Amino acid sequence: NAGVTQTPKFRVLKTGQSMTLLCAQDMNHEYMYWYRQDPGMGLRLIHYSVGEGTTAKGEVPDGYNVSRLKKQNFLLGLESAAPSQTSVYFCASRDNTEAFFGQGTRLTVV
Amino acid sequence: DQQVKQNSPSLSVQEGRISILNCDYTNSMFDYFLWYKKYPAEGPTFLISISSIKDKNEDGRFTVFLNKSAKHLSLHIVPSQPGDSAVYFCAARSLINTNAGKSTFGDGTTLTVKP
């Protein structure tokens, strides 16, 4: 039982490059979320999805796009990476109560 | 406006003693509260939760207390063990409001349990 899997675990990007972070869950959850965590701060919601084919903005959506073409996958895209997007990114999916998190993706933009 | 606050960035306790982690919230629409634990280089994992219809929920060594009038909750760990050393996040959300179950997280408290 893999739970929530994020790919990749680490990545270094140059300013202006693009990339996609993949989140996959095998628990058949409707809700999926992308968060970022910066030092000394909590988890801030970037985008979320309430079901296949739906996405919505969270509290810090600028510079990111998402897609949920399949129920089990939630993709986070950076079209033109900026140093301010250096962070640890967590994906989560949720049942009726708790959220299940992936192991995180550490992204550095230089 | 930070709606969920954990005012203590860090806490250090001796093994076997009680750890008390605190969390305050401002949004009166929040009616479901969760605690997550996070080890370095791992994602957060769910620890314990409480609904606003209760004032206490217990699971083994972990107890969460909710004081709705004060908009305050606390996590008690008794007895504390070195393996409890981690960052603890408080989270809150509204079960009723149509906000897709989005949780708002505090900034976390780093707990260190000394042997």
Write a structural description.
The complex is a heterodimer of chains A (110) and B (115). Chain A has 110 residues and is mainly beta. Helices cover 0% and strands 52% of the residues of chain A. In chain A, strands 2, 4, 5, 6, 9, 10 and 11 form a seven-stranded mixed sheet that branches. Chain B has 115 residues and is an all-beta fold. Chain B is 0% helix and 52% strand. In chain B, the strands form two sheets. In chain B, strands 2, 4, 5, 9, 10 and 11 form a six-stranded mixed sheet that branches. Chain B has a five-stranded antiparallel sheet with strand order 1-3-8-7-6, with no helix packed on it. The mean pLDDT of chain B is 93. Chains A and B meet through strand 4, strand 5, strand 9 and strand 10 of A and strand 4 and strand 5 of B.
Q: Could you give a short description of this structure?
A:
The complex is a heterodimer of chains A (110) and B (115). In chain A, 0% of the residues lie in helices and 52% in strands. Chain A has 110 residues and is mainly beta.
What is the strand and helix layout of this fold?
The complex is a heterodimer of chains A (110) and B (115).
Chain A: E1 4-7, E2 10-13, E3 19-25, E4 31-37, E5 43-49, E6 56-57, E7 64-67, E8 73-78, E9 87-94, E10 99-101, E11 105-109
Parallel strand pairs in A: 2-11
Antiparallel strand pairs in A: 1-3, 3-8, 4-5, 4-9, 5-6, 7-8, 9-10, 9-11
Chain B: E1 4-5, E2 10-14, E3 19-25, E4 32-38, E5 45-51, E6 56-59, E7 62-67, E8 72-77, E9 86-93, E10 104-105, E11 109-114
Parallel strand pairs in B: 2-11
Antiparallel strand pairs in B: 1-3, 3-8, 4-5, 4-9, 6-7, 7-8, 9-10, 9-11
Span from first to last CA of chain A?
36 Å
SS-based structural class of chain A? mainly beta
Calculate Rg of chain B over CA atoms. 14 Å
* Percentage of residues assigned to helices of chain B: under 10%
Tell me the helix content of chain A.
Answer: under 10%
Number of strands of chain A: 11
Number of strands of chain B: 11
Q: Which range does the strand content of chain A fall in?
A: over 45%
Beginning-to-end CA distance, first to last residue of chain B? 38 Å
Write down the overall mean pLDDT of chain A. Answer: 94
Assembly status: heterodimer
Name the poorly predicted regions of chain A. none
Largest sheet of chain B: 6 strands, mixed
Cα-based radius of gyration of chain A, to the nearest Å: 13 Å
Order of helices and strands of chain A: EEEEEEEEEEE
Continuous helix count of chain B: 0
- Strand residue content of chain B: over 45%
Shape of chain B: globular
- Biggest interface found: A-B, 25 and 22 residues
